[in-house]
Amino acid sequence: MPYDLYYWPTIQGRGEFVRLALEDAGAAYRDVCRLKGVSAMDRFLRKDAFACPFLKSGKLVIPQTASILFYLGARLGLAPKSQNERLRLHGLQLTIADWLVEVHDTHHPIASSLYYEEQRAAARQRAAIFLAERLPKFMAYFERAAGSRFSYVHLSLFQMIEGLRYAFPNAMRRIERRHRKLVKLHDRVAARPRLAAYLASERRLPFNQQGIFRRYAELDET
Amino acid sequence: MPYDLYYWPTIQGRGEFVRLALEDAGAAYRDVCRLKGVSAMDRFLRKDAFACPFLKSGKLVIPQTASILFYLGARLGLAPKSQNERLRLHGLQLTIADWLVEVHDTHHPIASSLYYEEQRAAARQRAAIFLAERLPKFMAYFERAAGSRFSYVHLSLFQMIEGLRYAFPNAMRRIERRHRKLVKLHDRVAARPRLAAYLASERRLPFNQQGIFRRYAELDET
Q1: What tens-digit pLDDT sequence spans chain B (222 residues)?
Q2: Quick check: B110 and A98 CB within 8 A?
Q3: Where are the alpha helices (DSSP H) in chain B?
Q4: CB–CB of B94 and A64 under 8 A?
Q5: How far is the alpha carbon of B37 from chain A, nearest alpha carbon, in Å?
Q6: Cβ distance of B129 and A110 shorter than 8 Å
Q7: Any idea which fold A3-75 has?
Q8: CB < 8 Å to B64, chain A
């Protein structure tokens, strides 16, 4: 039975971290809202999940990106069997989730329900501090902690770097120079055959201004 | 061997969600930084954990509050044995973690590294939208999803309500009226003998203006 992924059909967003795992593993899955529209999510959003993405695997409904990847990791061969090592990877993935919230909040520091243009001054402040203080701290941490053994965490780190390059090309040029190990990890992931095929396919949505990673030149470094 | 919890020694913060689980279960643990100071965390913060809290259990170092509770839940009898049910509880706990970030960001929408007074205007905007849109949504979700069977998630929901009452007494008076089931859940948790003893002890730090839940009258409803 294929996995059913439920997520917004027009953005990469959080769902992309799950898509990368499913695609790299060659798993059978349906990207349900791209087939049936977003209303397919409604019946799950009262109780099974506070928000998307969530994954349906048989009768089991799993919300939260990191939890989905924890579940899929062992099943898809994207994590080792050791319980302790699986827990360690999960801790890394949860830290990536925190990092992603900070990326999102660079352009929406006040509220997701307001337009960017309504919170532009706050966004400039938040983005400047994110690029100066937080981004280098996350990059340095993952450079040390990621490890050399491939797992779903490497797929997510690939996606973070892709997204950050889209959103903050200038800042990333500066910061990547100090983190060649992480850049090499990114490049190794990009060269994985099934992943490369996915990235070149129509299934890979482009980055855009509705996703988590957005390019506003005024939020980047000059 | 006792568990070693590493967290800031002067605030409840994220560490409190772990303390509540350890205390309610009557587990042997050391609150390491309250015994040895915060420098005890240093050697773990390069690679094992991006931030505190983290838990040391034998040689295993577990970062991330929700992951710590996932690990402790089964060991301390605060979660059922079923893997699917444990995963469901973990999803709820991760959603509590997201909720907590939004609480924090009501007073620090621009950066944790700036003082509240430096981001007061943005905080007022963010807090107003949080109270009007997000808080009712989280409360309604957990009222439906929490379930009646006790688990560590109930301890965390107790803490959320305690914290929110401290931070936003006016808004909570309004919102709690619509969520009597969640309030009853809170009251049942508060009456658990070991937890009640902990709450009355010196080990329970008071809420204060350095934690995640802070009381700024201007951020509350009138």
Answers
A1: 899 999 999 999 999 999 999 999 999 999 999 999 999 999 999 889 999 999 999 999 999 999 999 999 999 999 999 999 999 999 999 999 999 999 999 999 999 999 999 999 999 999 999 999 999 999 999 999 999 999 999 999 999 999 999 999 999 999 999 999 999 999 999 999 999 999 999 999 999 999 999 999 999 999
A2: no
A3: 15-24, 32-36, 65-75, 83-107, 120-129, 135-145, 152-167, 169-176, 180-190, 193-199
A4: yes
A5: 23
A6: yes
A7: Glutaredoxin (3.40.30)
A8: 90-91, 94-95
CB atoms closer than 10 angstroms to residue A203: 12
- CATH 1.20.1050.10 for domain B83-192, yes or no, is yes
Which residues, including other chains, have CB under 8 Å from residue A39's CB and lie 6 or more apart?
A: none
Interface of A with B (CB under 8 A): 46-51, 60, 62-64, 66-67, 71, 84, 87, 90-91, 94-95, 98, 101, 105, 109-111, 113-114, 119, 122, 125-126, 129-130, 133, 138, 141, 144-145
Domains in chain A: boundaries: 3-75, 83-191
Please determine, for the modelled complex, whether the ipTM score is greater than 0.85: yes
Spatial distance between the Cα atoms of A171 and A219, rounded to a whole number of angstroms: 10
Q: Which CATH number fits domain A83-191: 1.20.1250.20, 3.30.428.10, 2.30.42.10, 1.20.1050.10?
A: 1.20.1050.10
Residue B20's alpha-carbon distances to B191, B199, B213, in angstroms, are 13, 9, 16
* Distance (Å) from the alpha carbon of B197 to chain A's nearest alpha carbon: 32
